[in-house]
């Protein structure tokens, strides 16, 4: 089986009761799969960071419409500045 995987490029799946348990693949196939998994993980992380950054920007500066819409009753003013200043 190993020769067939390495030299013929076959992939062998071992099953139990019709369900796949393990697979024999060439080292080259494994490297390609790992590289794809790393790319997918990097893309997912970048998307999560973009999503959180976008959400953070929107939540940090709500406009007057959002204040009423979301029922915000208080807002932080650095240094205790009175309203309108």
Walk me through the structure:
It is a single chain. With 85 residues, the chain is α+β, with helices and mostly antiparallel strands. It has a domain at 2-58. It has helices spanning 2-8, 27-60, 64-70; strands at 12-16, 19-24. A hairpin with a 2-residue loop joins strand 1 (12-16) and strand 2 (19-24).
Mass-distribution shape: elongated
Q: Which strands sit side by side, in order, in the main sheet?
A: 1-2
Instruction: Report how far the terminal alpha carbons are from each other.
Output: 78 Å
| Range of strand content | 5-15%
Q: Work out the radius of gyration.
A: 27 Å
Helix content: 55-70%
- Average pLDDT for all residues: 75
**Run of helices and strands:** HEEHH
| Helix vs. strand class | alpha+beta
The strand count comes to: 2
Main β sheet profile? 2 strands, antiparallel
Contiguous low-pLDDT stretches (5 residues minimum) are none
Figure out the total of helices: 3
Provide tags for this entry.
alpha+beta, 56% helix, 85 residues, elongated
Summarize the structure.
The chain is of the alpha+beta class and 85 residues long. It has helices at residues 2-8, 27-60, 64-70, and strands at residues 12-16, 19-24.
Compile the SSE list and pairings.
Layout lengths: L1 H7 L3 E5 L2 E6 L2 H34 L3 H7 L15
């Amino acid at each position: 089986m190993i020769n067939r995987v390495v030299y013929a490029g076959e992939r062998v799946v071992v099953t139990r009761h019709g369900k796949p348990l393990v697979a024999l693949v060439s080292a080259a196939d494994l490297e390609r799969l790992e590289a794809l998994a790393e790319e997918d993980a990097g893309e997912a992380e970048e998307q999560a960071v973009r999503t959180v950054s976008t959400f953070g920007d929107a939540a940090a500066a709500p406009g007057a419409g959002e204040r009423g819409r979301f029922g915000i009753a208080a807002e932080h003013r650095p240094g205790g500045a009175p309203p309108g200043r």
